[in-house]
Amino acid sequence: MNIISQNLVGSQEAKYKLALHLQNRKKVKEMYRMKGVQMLDKPELVISDIQEPKLKPQQALIYQTMKSELTKKGYSDFRFLGQGVQGLVLLAKDTKTNVRYAIKGVQVRDPHGNLDQDLNNRVKQEVEILTKCSDSPYVVSLIDQFEGQQFTYLVLTECQGTLSQILERNQNKRLNEISAIKYANDIAQGLYYIHSKSCLVNDLKMDNILIDYHGNAVVSDFGLADNLINKSGYAFNQYMGNFLYQAPECFDPADPFIGKVYHDEYLKLGVTVRQEPSNRGIDFKLASNKHKQLNYDGEFNNFVYHKQLKYIIEGLTNFIPKNRMPIKEALIILKGIISFEFQLDEMLIEMIDGNTQQFTSTLKNEIEFVKDLSNKFYPIIKNEQSLNQELKEDDQNRQYEAKIEELQIANIQLKERINEQELTINDLFTQLEQSQNQLMNQPQILKMPTMQMKDQQDVIFSEIKKQEKKDELPKEKNQIMQLIPLINYLLAKELLFIQKN
């Protein structure tokens, strides 16, 4: 097969895989909707169709510096995504491949080139932990890391949005039962994997739970993450996370409003807890009743799985650290519900491979790609309807071309068989001519039948000439086949005549 044919076959196969991918992702999302899972339901836009938000002056300045540095690294089409503890996050596209990424920039040097060593060490630790935890689909994937003049850049897999955005889209700011179970399972999967690598996120909150293009929750933002080296009797030695979500033993006992309440409650229970306060300050608006029994409203008690969910919630939020449920136990319960409610093999969208991505880039439609750590791609299509039409027409053309190829092969085979029959006829004529020559050497009395045989031979040649003018190969084949018995008959008749005389 020549290079052109190989490219053609590769292109057709890529388009077929792309069509299957589009069908599969539509099927998965429809399955979630039928089950009542609350999703982002936001349009998947190419970068040129995404509007920039209005930035604060300081953000705009940092944004411009990052864009300038990233342009030199081969990125373009920038959009602002958000701001974390340590820096900005941008959406950018690799100019050569049309693959897009979320790029986090942390300013480790000032404009004069002076390095902030503490911040630089923390970024290095973040990269180390992301690398260790990169093999789970429920943990954000670090694709690359490189240095700019002022910023260190972390290239991450792009996600659609956050779990907070799903909540904000609902009037009551709540998740329904099946959605809560589905996303809790995703988060538990991510946390269990992170803990299995002896790491802590240290900043787990709704804004740091992303939603990927599969519709799954992904644990992200490892700016405050740490390696889990030592444990106290009941609590982690250090906690740097958000106050709304942190465990009660992580509050400063010297704080008279929240921390002291929890400290006194532990003393009353006779529980010794080594409290290591976070040093990020206190937000007095946040809940301060973590030592009190939870109340469940009527809506919760009407849930199908309210008993299982209550068991998990009370197990994970137990005021006494040593009595808390391990994340693995919660995950087992959640996975059991998920396996009952969903077909697990249908929950992940099959991404396209690198070869398909390269061929897909040649299509007329404007397509960009989201890349994951396994080098698979999720296409973002400007006009999916027109692409589906293009693929449909291409499929019809492929079927037509396959039929033509089939007929051409049959035509070649037919010509080969006709050539074989012509060789057989030529052999018969050779034998006939030999017998004629023998008769010509006989006495004159035998020459009259020979002349009659010559007339018959002329008739045969005349018939063959007529067949050569025919264009339809199947008829030509049948007519030549009909001549063979006639030739055999005449040859046998002449040989018998010679033997008698």
Please write the CATH class name of the largest domain.
Alpha Beta
Within CATH, the superfamily of the largest domain carries the name Phosphorylase Kinase, domain 1
Strand content: 5-15%
Q: Which structural class do you get from the secondary structure elements? A: alpha+beta
In percent, how helical is the residue content? 40-55%
Distance between the termini: 62 Å
What is the radius of gyration computed over CA atoms, rounded to a whole number of angstroms?
39 Å
What's the number of helices? 13
Query: What is the subunit arrangement here?
Result: single chain
SSE order, one letter for each helix or strand: HHEEEHEEEHHEEEEHHHHHEEHHH
From the 3D coordinates, which CATH architecture of the largest domain would you assign? 2-Layer Sandwich
Q: Main β-sheet, in a few words? A: 7 strands, mixed
Number of domains: 3
Kindly identify the CATH topology of the largest domain.
Phosphorylase Kinase, domain 1
Mean pLDDT, nearest integer? 80
β-strand number: 12
- Described by the principal axes of the CA atoms, the overall outline is elongated
Low-confidence runs: 1-6, 232-237, 277-287
